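seq:
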Amino acid sequence: MQKQEDALLNRIRKGERKAMEELYDNYAPVLLGIARRYCSRMDEAEDMLQESMLKILKGINDFKPAFEGAFEAWMRRITVNQCLSSIRKNLDYSKLEMPLQQEPIEIKDEINESTRMYELTHEEIIEMVQSLPAGYRTVLNLYVFERMSHKEIAGELNITESTSKSQLSKARSIMRRKLELMNNTTEATG
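struct:
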């Protein structure tokens, strides 16, 4: 796989148009999936993908692979950063309500036994995440998918750690209620 990536990178660096198309075809689905988690609408996610691809192509000559899989990790990071940049422009985190003082909830404790029985498709999960308010959605993504600490999230979004914890807790609470609702609906119709 690494040799294929290296060959593709070399072809792109030479300006080969077909290689750029191949890059898009190979990685757009993954990068769009990341953008969809951060955006509330598909058209926003597609815009983030396009902006990310432009940044990737502009910066590709400076990319130096440090480990196997570094290229995809680099592209993922660019996509996340592009989404965060857009969110920062459109959302004033300083106006978020004051957080409640509470401990972060572990993911394994998030869903009780009754809601575990309901199996969600990938699409349903994305739709649930997209339906969250932007602040909740952003913190959830950074904490769960990017594995950032509350301290790192606070620095990234210019908020306090307690606000990050509060936003994550509220996002999880909404997700939990939606799962319980889905589960109750399934039980009632089944």
